[in-house]
Design brief:
Blueprint lengths: L5 H4 L3 H21 L3 H8 L3 H9 L6 H10 L36 H4 L2
Helix pairs in contact: 2-4, 3-4
């Protein structure tokens, strides 16, 4: 019985298409090297089914294994372009919960007392 997750079931079509395209690019790199799926799975220390899921663009594929696959092909730098760090990001800035405004969907301690 396959595992299902609401976050995977409700994945946006653009997200699914991007993952599919990434899988196709990884597959093209594998074929260009002349490696089989078994070769790649052995190199990545994963099962052949896990590697097939990566090439198929399944949203359940591990980002760690995908990163290792990119490294094998000498394309690990392309991962840095996925979500570049905003220029305004400051490592000393912390985001804190507002004390005055309750978070939607969260029950406060006062509401728990009957």
């Amino acid at each position: 019985m396959p595992k299902n997750s609401n976050s995977i079931i409700t994945a946006h079509p653009e997200t699914l298409k991007s993952l599919e395209n990434l899988g196709l690019r990884i597959r093209a790199s594998r074929v260009a090297q002349g490696w089989t799926i078994k070769d790649m799975a052995d190199r990545l220390f994963c099962s052949q089914n896990t590697y097939r899921a990566i090439e198929a663009g399944k949203p359940t594929a591990s980002i760690g294994i995908i990163a290792n696959a990119l490294w094998l092909f000498g394309q690990i730098d392309s991962l840095n372009a996925v979500a570049p760090l905003p220029l305004s990001a400051n490592s000393t800035t912390r985001v804190r919960k507002s004390k005055t405004k309750p978070i939607a969907g969260v029950i406060s301690d006062d509401e728990r007392n009957f």
